[in-house]
Design goal:
Length: 670
């Protein structure tokens, strides 16, 4: 526990600041003579300060690996497990306390040789929002933070806007980040969402608001993060080992060797985060990789003229260079694709500049163009983008005890890209759309036409058939969403029948014409059949995911309509009718739906919004969802049906319970 100034401790008696440590490191740092890089962890709604352990422990192991040349000091704030997602009144107080903590942390390093001037922050859930709110404080210096990583933080809007404190806090934070976007260029922000397993905070809310998506902000879903490729629930995102490893590796790559602190260069920070969280080239991060490199000429050089090539390596004691002359392929093909199942971090593919001889010693390293997938690393090069290359060179180093395969092929983009229109929402899964891929390529891109709305959800079935029964490496299927980092990856054995779920976290932006794709990284002698069907259960799941917060309103509106009917019956006949009977008679969608549609339409006009606000009415749920691209015409009707059903069966349950208990009571009393 870190001792706070008396004034701070008196003002915030419920909050505390801690330093995490274990083993010898904990003993050495009890006197707080710190020499590392400060990172502050902020827990979320009802979160514990002890959740910092996952980050702190793995960072310590990594520091031991580099003999403590660099290390991080992990601090954590105890917010007394306050329920800030349910009551927003504490958020401002938490933000001010974090500001005081940052000043205390920086003071601990005063007078050290490499004293930090800023703190990196990791915030889980509402802790990430508190970190963003620091910049709205009057006395806060923006240079106090240079890196912010948020985990499953609802940035766009609260999950349940239960009070005015919460909605006002969100408005203030998001408006500040949009209006002062230029001032935030020195702050690099990464938002990691949990994906479809996070039932508490849907990933669409964790994407930083679009207008503040400047050069120094990045939003990703954990299912798209290289080497993680998995969705997490709301809590496990804090301790998911694959994500923690990616975060700690990024922290160590962010260190500036001169200052021994996190680099002040925003471009380097973004390139490190892109390397670990967006596209991993299966190489250790280098800020400025050398443009040219020298190849040793001791290996055997072999020329390959075929357009398709496979090579299996097993106990190969002699190294080899395979060269692919490009001149003969440029007229017939547009791209070259290579894959390597050896998942080490060495360079393996190079480009040779205008060489006429068999050997090519000065080359450009194309391994940085590679992308790591679960079972292989792949490179796709557009030949037109490399006019100066005469050859592609693939290096096979001497290997003993390792078995792996290399594949390359030249292809025309048109022959590997097929369009598959998705089925209509109202097909209810009875009809399907299918396509057969029967060429012998290693890569296919199936464009999923007309798939761009959040209420669409599909089951994609991929069936693979192969000509021979030899052992093959698994196929990789990736659902690629081009307008946001929310890809999902499935690995399947061959031959197999694989089911893939396809749905969106955010709808396609209005000015964007790109189409989602199913990328199939396949085996060369296999056929693939792709079938797309609408999944009714997942469509309803998407409606619940995006609109569950509005459901209680529809339940209450059904109950109020029923009470109105009961009152009118009471006045006209002198008797109160049964609740369930009256609900069936009076709770009709046409009494609610037209009013909502008219109000949403009028909300588009400034004069109506001004009248609405002058009457102190809260913002309409439907209008708010429209602004988030999360509203569509039929959703209100579906929610009304759900709400009426819920009210009806609640009424049946309540009246049955009442009769049962009253008869029990009468039996006991009499």
């Amino acid at each position: 526990k870190i001792k706070l100034p008396k004034k701070t401790a008196r003002r915030y008696p419920a909050y505390e600041l801690y330093l995490y440590g274990e083993g010898n490191y904990a003993e050495e740092n009890k006197n707080l003579l710190l020499t590392g890089i400060p990172v502050l962890f902020l827990p979320g709604n009802a979160g514990s300060y002890r959740q910092v352990r996952s980050l702190g422990s793995i960072a310590l192991r990594k520091a031991e690996d580099v003999d403590f040349k660099y290390h991080f000091n992990f601090f954590s704030v105890n917010f007394n497990e306050e329920l800030v997602a349910l009551y927003g009144g504490s958020l401002q107080r938490q933000t001010k306390f974090v500001h005081e903590c940052i000043k205390v942390i920086l003071k601990l390093y005063r007078g050290r040789e490499f004293a930090p001037t800023s703190v990196a922050i990791v915030g889980h859930s509402m802790g990430g929002l508190v970190a963003r709110a620091l910049l709205t404080l009057k006395n806060f210096k923006p240079e106090f933070i240079n890196l912010l990583i948020t985990q499953a933080t609802p940035h766009v809007a609260p999950v349940m806007p239960l009070d005015k404190y919460l909605t006002d806090f969100y408005t203030a934070v998001n408006n500040h980040w949009i209006l002062k976007a230029q001032d935030l260029r020195n702050l690099t922000t990464l938002s990691v969402a949990g994906g479809f397993r996070d039932y508490q905070v849907r990933s669409g809310l964790a994407f930083l608001p679009r207008l503040s998506q400047h050069d120094s902000a990045l939003s990703v879903v954990s299912s798209a993060v290289p080497r993680a490729w998995a969705s997490t629930d709301h809590l496990s995102i804090v301790w998911c080992k694959e994500l923690i490893l990616a975060t700690i590796r990024a922290f160590f790559d962010l260190i500036d060797e001169n200052t021994r602190q996190i680099t002040e260069d925003p471009k380097k920070r973004m390139s490190v985060l892109n390397h670990h969280f967006v596209r991993h080239p299966a190489k250790i991060f280098e800020e400025n990789p050398e443009a040219f490199t020298e190849l040793s000429g001791a290996f055997m050089w072999i020329t390959v003229k075929a357009s398709k090539w496979t090579y299996s390596v097993y106990n190969d004691s002699d190294g080899k260079y395979f060269t692919f002359p490009l001149a003969s392929h440029r007229k017939s093909y547009s791209h070259v694709y290579c894959e390597n199942s050896m998942l080490d971090t060495r360079s393996w593919i190079y480009g040779c500049m205008n060489s006429n001889s068999l050997m090519c010693l000065k080359v450009t390293d194309l391994s940085w163009r590679a992308e790591l997938l679960p079972t292989t690393k792949v490179v796709i090069l557009k030949l037109q983008d490399y006019p100066s290359l005469s050859h592609i060179v693939i290096q096979v180093p001497p290997m003993v005890g390792n078995k792996y395969t290399l594949d390359c092929e030249f292809f025309k983009e048109d022959s590997r890209t097929v369009q598959l229109p998705v089925t209509h929402l109202l097909s209810f899964g009875f009809s399907s759309s299918k396509i057969l891929l029967n060429s012998t390529g290693l890569l296919y891109n199936v464009q999923l036409q007309h798939f761009n709305q959040i209420y669409q959800a599909f089951k994609i079935y991929v069936e693979s058939h192969c000509q021979s029964l030899k052992e093959r490496k698994p196929s990789v299927y990736r659902v690629h969403i081009p307008w946001s980092h929310e890809d999902s990856i499935t690995v399947a054995k061959i031959p197999s029948f694989t089911e893939i779920s396809a749905k969106l976290h955010i709808a396609r932006p209005q000015n964007d014409s790109r189409v989602p794709e199913l990328n199939i990284y396949s085996s060369s002698d296999c056929q693939y059949e792709v079938i797309v069907k609408t999944s009714l259960s997942q469509v309803l799941g998407q409606i619940i995911r995006f609109h569950a917060g509005a459901l209680p309103v529809y339940v209450v509106s059904s109950i109020l309509l029923t009470y109105g009917g009961q009152l009118s019956t009471l006045i006209s006949t002198g008797q109160c009718s049964d609740f369930c009977f009256e609900l069936v008679r009076t709770a009709k969608p046409y009494k609610v739906e037209p009013l909502i549609s008219i109000a949403v339409f009028l909300q588009g006009f400034n004069w109506f919004r001004e009248i609405w606000e002058s009457l102190s009415l809260p913002e309409m749920d439907a209008a708010e969802r429209s602004s988030q691209d999360a509203w569509f015409p039929v959703v209100s009707l579906i929610l009304f049906l759900f709400g009426t059903g819920f009210a009806y069966w609640s009424g049946v349950f309540f009246s049955t319970s009442l009769r049962l208990f009253s008869s029990l009571w009468l039996t006991l009393i009499r």
